[in-house]
């Protein structure tokens, strides 16, 4: 089979190679990329002779049929294990292809899967002692993205850095130690089965290596891929940092749905506070002049005076139907010095309108202009133009019903959503259903703000509202846990523990790394089809299904642990508000909502108090963004009914009227939280814009482009930090590709700052209040740092040092080397919000220092309430325990013991044999129970099991009592089953006499020793609180 080579002339000494040439050639000759990768993963760490033996064997094309243990029985202890989710998709594709008559007989499900970009090939980088370690991981089902679909899975290798490594290189930098080693590794090509992969894109902790697709007449290099994604000529003025972030959009998780032709895409401008209205009559004339086959919803234009050579400021005119202009008026215009209010002075005014149109011959978007003369009598001249131009439609546009129905069919939805979060070309944002109900309308608008590249304060709400809400949340969650109804308790456990999903995941991925990290080394989870409980909640459900009462001490014992976990989870300050919803937010496409008004129509919502359905929300409501750090991040608005917006369901429609829209206050995301509970809305007061808005322009100067750091020391290679610099270097392929790679990779070596500023913001808010200038300053910088990587910016060292000094001066005597924390943060895991890389470099829990407690702070009040409710619940559970509720389990032994004691002609020898065997078991089992985390515990558990079930078995008991006629007669009369039941009852009865109290954690419940009956461990893993009392 001929081998296609897509390598360039490279220095092999500077190439990462995992195999020698002959092995690489053998891998390249295998049938498909999947089997190549899986074989390479399996033999990478084998000696060369083993690698040759595998390559020279008859290997299958489907890795699921790969049996390496038969090829190398001395080396492999287990067979190759494939990803079950990937296997299921392959089986499904095979079924679909068999039913498709157009399928090529040469095509296979695996080849189709790789072409579709649904397979992930990855290399994990980590630190082993002081050495860099790279590990090829088994192929997995990929999260779909645009670049994988475009080029196929075989063109990409995902290099992932673990969190500790990522922080370490950010701490050390790229010039020393492991940082320099990583820097060199990422710049070297990876040579694998005669293909050369080069680092191309960076996103989060992943570096994506790219190689040319097979079968092309000319090789595609990284620079060609970049040109195809974002042409340099069309984006020459864009900053390099923004250019990089736009390229990364191709790596974002997306699901392919429908395709648009360029003619079906409508480029329209954004509506701003200074936008004006235009009539449909005039817009139709403009569309005809521009050669459009549709009437645009908005258009850009200027007032033009030819004699004076005057071209006015560009504005946007919007077609706001059905509330348009009076019949005699064609458009509105702002007053300027070239306009006279008197209609008699000027009979006509000239305007120039423009719109981007796709030109097929050039395969480019081109701005087309037209001039129209409008009678002065049909123009309304307006005064009072807003001082600032604020976007009202940032990131939101309309989509035709025909296209929306196509998305519904492609994604197999059972309903038609009113809004879609999507990406098309290099555009992203939110698209809402057009008010044009034409179901054949297959089109989509793209606004200028979507076009990314060519190609906690209470605000006067009483503290009692939050406290009562937290107390009610605890009551709602915890009441079902103390119910005597076993069905209700089981349902509560299944809901809190997500047991159905957990069990399905465990059965599907029992051998994957995900489960291996979560379970103990010797647990039942290694048995793929084991149905033994995974955690306390699952154990409670199994006990209830077996018929145990909710007041059984075993159930209560596990409920204590599960209840404590649930309580701890609830103490995270995420108060569940019944009258609330999380929805997408869009601008009003009709322009009919007044300033401060919103529209929200809910599809499936019932009032938590009356249980009556709520369809259209009316009255006051509070709308908030996340994260919410500034006083203006929460706004009180009025929800109204609007017949013209009834087609929008589960979407918050905001007014575009006024000096500043709600969308501008909540900028930063497509999703908002809406609360209409009277307790929150009645007393809520909006923040004062004039006093509680930080000087954002000043703070923006604290940040600089990340790419500037990549170019440092490079002279004038990237002088302007714009794409124009790349364009100038394009003639020199090596230099261009080198500088582009540096501009990408430098971002992962920049230390994250949002965790530190999150802490400093919390401290300032706690000490000074949310409206304090210092709090707002640190809050704004914190949110800016959150998106710094996406925007390609980094906090300046000078600004960072100045803010640290300002923070220390504000804290005075409270300042120390470590940033102190408000006491309420004790109840939450702030490492997830702050970025654990920044705080856990040496893998030890960082020391925590607390600020003096402020009992009047709202979060302290909530924390105190949560703590009190948690205490009450756990005390209630303790009161439900009884001294003994399983007397029938110990009764057979007590009866036997009484009979032996009452007669000298009884089985005294047998009783002593049973007792001595049990005592020996306890001696072997007792010690490891106190060392629950030691890895060799299972050895002692197995020894105890052998002692009980081998040494103490029926035949050995016969041998031990053969000289005692009474014991021998009794034993043979009972038989094996009754003899073993008696011994187990003896364990139950004597556990409390021996004062033995084992740890009842998940690591020891019911699955050690596996080779023997699990009832033994269940009997021994007990707590004195639920064992029967010993006989008097």
UniProtKB/TrEMBL annotation:
Enzyme class: transferase
Xref: Pfam families: RdRP
Reactions catalysed, as given in the entry: RNA(n) + a ribonucleoside 5'-triphosphate = RNA(n+1) + diphosphate
Record key words, sorted: Nucleotidyltransferase, RNA-binding, RNA-directed RNA polymerase, Transferase
Cell division keyword on record: no
GO biological process, one term: siRNA processing
Domain RDRP core residue range list: 136-307, 381-800
GO CC field: nuclear RNA-directed RNA polymerase complex
Alphabetized GO MF terms: RNA binding; RNA-directed RNA polymerase activity
EC number(s) from the headed UniProt entry: 2.7.7.48
Keyword Transcription regulation: no
Family in the record: Belongs to the RdRP family.
Protein name, entry field: RNA-dependent RNA polymerase
Species of the source: Puccinia sorghi
């Amino acid at each position: 089979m001929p081998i296609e080579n897509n390598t360039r002339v490279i220095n092999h000494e500077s190439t990462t190679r995992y195999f020698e040439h002959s092995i690489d050639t053998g891998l390249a000759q295998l049938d498909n990329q999947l089997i190549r990768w899986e074989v390479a993963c399996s033999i990478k760490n084998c000696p060369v002779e083993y690698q040759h033996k595998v390559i020279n064997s008859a290997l299958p094309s489907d890795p699921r049929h790969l049996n390496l243990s038969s090829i190398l029985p001395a080396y492999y202890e287990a067979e190759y294990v494939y990803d079950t989710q990937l296997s299921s998709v392959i089986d499904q594709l095979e079924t679909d292809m068999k039913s498709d008559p157009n399928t090529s007989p040469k095509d296979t499900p695996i080849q189709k899967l790789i072409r579709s970009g649904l397979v992930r090939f990855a290399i994990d980088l980590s630190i082993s002692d002081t050495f860099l370690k790279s590990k090829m991981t088994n192929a997995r089902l990929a999260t779909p993205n645009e670049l994988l679909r475009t080029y196929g899975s075989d063109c990409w290798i995902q290099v992932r850095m673990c969190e500790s490594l990522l922080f370490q290189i950010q701490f050390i930098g790229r010039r020393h130690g492991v940082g320099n080693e990583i820097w060199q590794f990422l710049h070297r090509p990876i040579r694998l089965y005669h293909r050369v992969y080069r680092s191309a894109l960076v996103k989060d902790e992943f570096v994506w290596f790219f190689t040319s697709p097979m079968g092309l007449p000319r090789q595609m290099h990284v620079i060609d891929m970049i040109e195809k994604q974002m042409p340099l000529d069309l984006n020459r003025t864009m900053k390099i940092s923004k250019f990089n972030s736009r390229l990364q959009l191709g790596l974002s998780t997306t699901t392919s749905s429908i395709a648009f032709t360029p003619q079906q895409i409508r480029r329209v401008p954004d509506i701003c506070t200074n936008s004006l209205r235009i009539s449909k009559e005039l817009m139709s004339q403009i569309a005809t002049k521009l050669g459009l086959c549709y009437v645009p919803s908005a258009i850009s234009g200027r007032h033009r005076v030819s004699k004076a050579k005057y071209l006015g400021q560009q504005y946007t005119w919007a077609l706001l139907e059905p509330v348009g202009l009076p019949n005699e008026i064609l458009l509105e215009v702002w007053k300027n010095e070239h306009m006279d209010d008197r209609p008699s002075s000027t009979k006509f005014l000239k305007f120039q309108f423009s719109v981007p149109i796709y030109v097929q011959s050039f395969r480019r978007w081109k701005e087309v202009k037209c001039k129209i003369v409008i009678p002065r009598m049909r123009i309304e001249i307006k005064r009072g133009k807003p001082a600032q131009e604020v976007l009202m439609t940032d990131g939101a546009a309309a989509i035709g019903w025909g296209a929306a129905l196509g998305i519904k069919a492609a994604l197999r939805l059972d309903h038609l959503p009113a809004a879609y979060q999507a990406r098309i070309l290099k555009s992203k944002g939110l698209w809402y259903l057009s008010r044009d109900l034409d179901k054949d309308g297959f089109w989509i608008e793209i606004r200028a703000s979507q076009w990314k590249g060519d190609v906690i304060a209470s605000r006067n709400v009483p503290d009692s509202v939050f406290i009562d809400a937290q107390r009610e949340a605890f009551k709602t969650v915890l009441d079902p846990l103390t119910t005597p109804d076993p069905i209700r308790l089981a349902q509560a456990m299944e809901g809190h523990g997500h047991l159905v999903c957990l069990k399905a995941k465990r059965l599907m991925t029992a051998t994957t790394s995900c489960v291996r990290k979560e379970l103990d080394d010797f647990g039942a989870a290694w048995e793929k089809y084991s149905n033994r409980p995974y955690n306390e909640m699952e154990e409670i459900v199994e006990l209830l299904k077996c018929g145990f009462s909710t007041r059984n001490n075993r159930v209560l014992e596990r409920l204590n642990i599960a209840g404590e976990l649930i309580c701890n989870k609830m103490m995270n300050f995420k108060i569940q508000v019944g009258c609330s919803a999380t929805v997408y937010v869009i601008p009003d496409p009709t322009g009919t909502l007044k300033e401060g008004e919103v529209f929200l129509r809910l599809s499936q919502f019932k009032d938590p108090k009356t249980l009556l359905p709520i369809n259209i929300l009316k009255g006051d409501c509070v709308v908030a963004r996340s994260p919410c750090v500034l006083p203006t991040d929460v706004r009180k608005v009025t929800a109204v009914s609007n017949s013209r917006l009834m087609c929008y369901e589960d979407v918050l429609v905001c007014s575009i009227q006024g000096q500043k829209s709600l969308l501008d206050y909540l900028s930063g995301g497509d999703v908002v939280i809406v609360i209409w509970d009277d307790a929150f809305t009645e007393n809520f007061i909006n923040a004062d814009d004039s006093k509680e808005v930080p000087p954002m322009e000043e703070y923006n100067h604290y940040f600089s482009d990340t790419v500037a750091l990549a170019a440092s020391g490079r002279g004038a290679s990237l002088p302007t930090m714009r794409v124009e610099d790349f364009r100038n270097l394009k003639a020199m392929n090596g230099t261009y590709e080198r500088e582009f790679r540096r501009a990408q990779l430098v971002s992962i070596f920049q230390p994250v700052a949002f965790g530190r500023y999150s802490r400093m913001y919390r401290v300032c808010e706690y000490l000074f209040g949310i409206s304090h200038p210092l709090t707002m300053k640190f809050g704004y910088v914190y949110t800016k740092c959150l998106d710094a990587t996406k925007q390609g910016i980094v906090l300046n060292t000078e600004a960072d040092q100045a803010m640290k000094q300002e923070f220390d001066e504000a804290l005075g005597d409270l300042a120390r080397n470590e940033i102190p924390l408000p006491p309420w943060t004790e109840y939450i895991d702030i490492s997830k919000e702050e970025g654990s890389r920044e705080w856990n470099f040496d893998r030890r829990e960082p020391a925590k220092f607390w600020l003096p407690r402020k009992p009047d702070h709202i979060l302290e009040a909530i924390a105190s309430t949560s703590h009190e409710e948690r205490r009450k619940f756990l005390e209630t559970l303790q009161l439900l325990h009884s001294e003994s509720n399983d007397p029938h389990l110990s009764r057979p032994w007590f009866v036997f013991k009484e009979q032996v004691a009452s007669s000298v002609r009884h089985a005294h020898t047998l009783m002593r044999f049973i007792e001595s065997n049990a005592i020996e078991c306890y001696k072997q089992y007792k010690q490891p129970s106190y060392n629950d985390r030691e890895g060799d515990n299972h050895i002692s558990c197995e020894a105890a099991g052998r002692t009980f079930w081998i040494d103490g078995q029926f035949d050995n008991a016969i041998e031990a009592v053969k000289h005692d006629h009474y014991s021998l007669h009794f034993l043979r009369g009972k038989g094996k089953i009754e003899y073993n039941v008696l011994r187990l009852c003896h364990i139950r009865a004597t556990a409390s006499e021996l004062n033995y109290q084992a740890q009842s954690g998940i690591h020891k419940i019911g699955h050690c020793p596996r080779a023997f009956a699990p009832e033994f461990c269940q009997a021994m893993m007990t707590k004195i609180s639920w064992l029967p009392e010993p006989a008097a």
